[in-house]
Amino acid sequence: MDRHDALYLTLLIFVTFIWGVTFPMIKDVFVYLSPVSFLAIRFVVAALIFLPFVYRKLRASNRKTIRYGIIAGVFLFIAYYLQTVGLMYTEPALSGTITGIYVVFVPLISYFYLRRRVMKIEVYSSVFAFLGLVLMSYSGLHSAAIESGDILTFIAAIFYAMQLVYVSKYASDIDPLTFSFLQIVVVAVLSLAFMRTDMYPLHFSYYALFVVVFTAIFATFLATYVYVSALSKMNVTKVGVILIGEPIFADVTSIFLFNEPVGPVEILGICIMIVSIGVISYFSD
Fold first, then answer.
1. pLDDT digits over 117-136, tens only?
2. Structure pTM?
3. 171: helix, coil or strand?
4. Residue among 25, 56, 13 nearest 216 (CA)
5. d(C-alpha 268, C-alpha 264), whole Å
6. How far apart are CA 222 and CA 50, in angstroms?
7. Residues in contact with 16: Cβ distance below 8 Å, sequence separation at least 6, in sequence order
């Protein structure tokens, strides 16, 4: 692993930490905002933060760059939207586990779309990372009934994988700041369009405002730029396995902030995920 890989690995782990820490916060904000409203406001704020940094670069962008950004943004919106709607009809633990299936789809889609040979270590790490995720969610899955939202969440997982692979194909040819901004704008615009059909009333609170701003800055603006930049330099399967580490930090946050119990099966799952991330980070090109 060279210095660039080590830097991106550190930044990606920081991104998973941010996503994991904000998960309990986002869950609580739905008391005040609907999922679609939260997505719309969050991504609009993130786009506005991006704008001063990307304005000049955006003016110099060609049609191809804009087209790639829009397509990647549509993939990202579909994934976010289906996962959000699916969460309304299924248990959170089951939703998180089904979403994590994307890590298994990434090497498969890479093989057919990128025409690249997938190393065995990538396949093994992806499968074991997902196994660890299942074990981490064991207590939640044990009591969760299969609901209609599971199908939507499964489709969302496929689109998450497609988005990662698609971005990895063009990330090295496009300025990562511009590429990130275009995706954020597309998600913001489409979320606003769907928000118009949302009958859920909005309730102002300082907590909701804090969560929106915090997630817009760290979990959207910073996180998107980091993983798009990483995909321009790193193996997409490696990035996917690292990003699936988000539930580790979500569980740790829930344990310390909400005193949620954790058993030996969940601890085993966390260990398997950490080992999978370590193995693919060290051995994969």
1. 778 888 888 888 888 888 87
2. 0.87
3. coil
4. 25
5. 6
6. 9
7. 242, 243, 244, 245, 246, 248, 249
